[in-house]
Amino acid sequence: MMCSRLRPSLSHLLSLRLLGTAAPRTAAARRSDLLSATLAFEDPSAFRVKSLGELLRALGIFRLCSFPVLVNHCGKLMSVARTFLGRRGFSLLLRPTVYAQFVAGENEREISQSMEKMSLLGLRPMLAVPIEEDLGESTGEKRYDDNMEAMLECVQMSHSNAWSRDPMMQLKITALLSPELCVKLTTLIAKQPYDLNLVVRAMDGEPISFPGLDESEVAHFLCGLQRLNKIAEASVNKVRVLVDAEYTYMNPALSLVTMAMMKKFNKDGAWIWNTYQCYLKESRSLLLDALCLSKNEGFCLGVKLVRGAYMDKERKLAEKEGCLDPIHQCWEDTNDSYNGSLDVMLEVISQKPERYRIIVATHNEESDGRVGDRQRWRCSVFRPAAGHV
Length: 389
Description:
By secondary structure, the protein is an alpha/beta fold. It is about 50% helix and about 10% strand. It has helices at about 50-65, 70, 75-100, 110-120, 140-160, 180-190, 195-205, 215-235, 250-265, 285-295, 310-320, 330-350, 365-375; strands at about 15-25, 125-130, 170, 240-245, 270-275, 300-305, 355-360, 380-385. An eight-stranded mixed β-barrel has the order 1-2-3-4-5-6-7-8, surrounded by five helices. Helix 5 (about 140-160) runs parallel beside helix 8.
């Protein structure tokens, strides 16, 4: 985290993460050395900026993370630990262990040190504010405003430091807009899609009335759009903002807002990006819809291509609701979905590289290597490192 007034509770680990991306490479005439800057975990030099203590800590924590009982009940276990140890004791236990493993730092000095370490490895750091909410966790306008301030500081930090070249940052919309409203918007737009221009006008401050929302919901939606607008205004032409995907029951609303931001701010470049989860059966059609929309509305499209992160909950929810499982049945099907979507993006990039950009967020060394095999055209592709800090 960047400053004490924005510090969230340690039990939720809502602090600033640091993701690493390999530098963009131009495919033309350099395919043979395309992956030369990619680090492999078999190479000891990948860990040269880590101390022995940091490596032992990482080994221990990731070993603990391999036990499902600990992962599935971590929230309850942390609550119990906080009750027995007290606030100070709990902090003394987690801060040098789990917190230090997954969080870049609490202030700009600590974050800069983490950034510089990654830069020494040839990686491009990307700040992330992994604050999100699910149903029943809404915290009110004051907390959403505090989250916005944290993200604005993230924009400023990414733009102003020497270690950040063509900087990027990551955010989740449910840190700025309640999940309950996102779910209701998803239901409404499934029946009658909102016009993007309506959302853009609301971002510009017009007092818009959205069909299907009551007065309080409209007021909250307008506040959320204003928060997103401030972040986009601060980042355009400075920092690329990557909007994370979340759960399927709210993703359509998140995409609506993200596409409205793209329409407003991506006129001459991809400054606002959307994320596509390829473990979803509908991921390819969602990507194709986005490409069609960007063409029709005349904005640049930035795509972050991931596999996905909510598989267990998505499947449990589908079973509970008696719905079809939205997730591919096996890892191989997800790979096919991922590689197919990658081919789609590389094709459009080859035709209009100035209008389309992609981050190939594999988090997988084997499929990361496929990027080089598939790059047949001159285009910029960002490839995240197989791991993240």
